[in-house]
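User: Sequence recovery, please. Input:
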């Protein structure tokens, strides 16, 4: 159940109580549109308690479908915060998220939201070390908040980017800062590690620029692990939204050279894996090597698909005998 307040003709979410860490915020509660998450809504500790104690308006409760309910305190389930929150879905109606709304939610792994959120508070994801997945939906004619969200998340991040013109699967590498003391000069130098900061600058104002993203591939080759490189390459080719011909050729050259390693990364996504084999596994020796990889993973259905493809792609030549 959600804690909320009626603010004029809209609703502000104050928190959630329940036993399930996978939360879907409703679009409407009691006929009013849900437009806001309060500060510290899903954080724990003094910040949330102080926020709740400072409220002057009545705190109300509703169920997961947005139906107002009445209950006594003794019947309330525990508050979801910190280790309790795993994934959260925000409706397109959300326009504002208060400061530190997810502060120290270190088990939070996925956020689904609209890119048209107008007001993002500071420190939203402070302490959210487990965040890995962002599903963001762009709205035609409205500014995007993706740049602001990415600036708050410095870890390796997988972004599903949804638009009315198409979708893309993007990988943003990790970045982190290090403070190094320069004793003779008596100054502290801030050093940036990883190329994740460059990938987070691929914007023209608030609009994401695919060509800038793809042009950073040489930096990725030098600074990141083979796993990160492979994941970015296969996701970009699998969802080639606004992918220029030259960049496609660069990605494909890398994929063909490392197809065995990349197939290991794709094996958990059956649809992507089969697409990879259909589109790029044209070399018989490498194909057979990938078949061995799949056989060791104990995936009989996937292996059956591969063997069918192998029979069609590399048919056994009939022997010809001459007498």
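Assistant: Recovered sequence (323 residues):
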């Amino acid at each position: 159940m959600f804690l909320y307040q009626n603010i004029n003709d809209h609703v502000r979410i104050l928190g959630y109580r329940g036993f399930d860490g996978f939360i879907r915020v409703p679009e409407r509660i009691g006929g009013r549109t849900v437009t806001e998450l309060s500060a510290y809504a899903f954080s724990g500790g003094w910040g949330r308690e102080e926020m709740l104690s400072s409220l002057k308006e009545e705190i109300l409760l509703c169920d997961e479908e947005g139906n107002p309910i009445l209950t006594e305190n003794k019947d309330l389930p525990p508050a979801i915060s910190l280790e309790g929150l795993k994934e959260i879905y925000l409706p397109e109606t959300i326009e504002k998220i208060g400061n530190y709304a997810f502060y120290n939610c270190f088990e939070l792994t996925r956020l689904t939201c609209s890119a048209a959120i107008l007001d993002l508070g500071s420190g939203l994801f402070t302490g959210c070390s487990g965040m890995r997945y962002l599903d963001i939906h762009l709205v035609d004619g409205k500014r995007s908040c993706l740049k602001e969200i990415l600036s708050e998340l410095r870890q390796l991040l997988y972004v599903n980017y949804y638009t009315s013109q198409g979708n893309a699967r993007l990988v943003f590498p990790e970045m982190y800062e290090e403070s190094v003391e320069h004793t003779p000069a008596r100054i502290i130098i801030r050093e940036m590690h990883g190329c994740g900061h460059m990938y987070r600058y691929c914007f023209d104002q608030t609009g994401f620029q695919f060509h800038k993203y793809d042009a950073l591939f040489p930096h990725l080759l030098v600074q990141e692990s083979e796993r990160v490189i492979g994941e970015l390459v296969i996701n970009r080719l699998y969802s080639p939204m606004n992918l220029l011909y030259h960049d496609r050729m660069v990605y494909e050259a890398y994929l063909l050279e490392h197809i065995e390693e990349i197939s290991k990364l794709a094996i958990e996504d059956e649809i992507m894996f089969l697409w990879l084999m259909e589109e790029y596994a044209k070399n018989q020796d490498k194909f057979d090597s990938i078949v061995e990889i799949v056989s060791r993973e104990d995936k009989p259905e996937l292996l059956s698909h591969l063997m069918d493809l192998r029979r069609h792609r590399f048919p056994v030549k009939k022997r010809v005998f001459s007498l």
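The domain at 1-153 is CATH 3.80.10.10 (Leucine-rich repeat, LRR (right-handed beta-alpha superhelix)).
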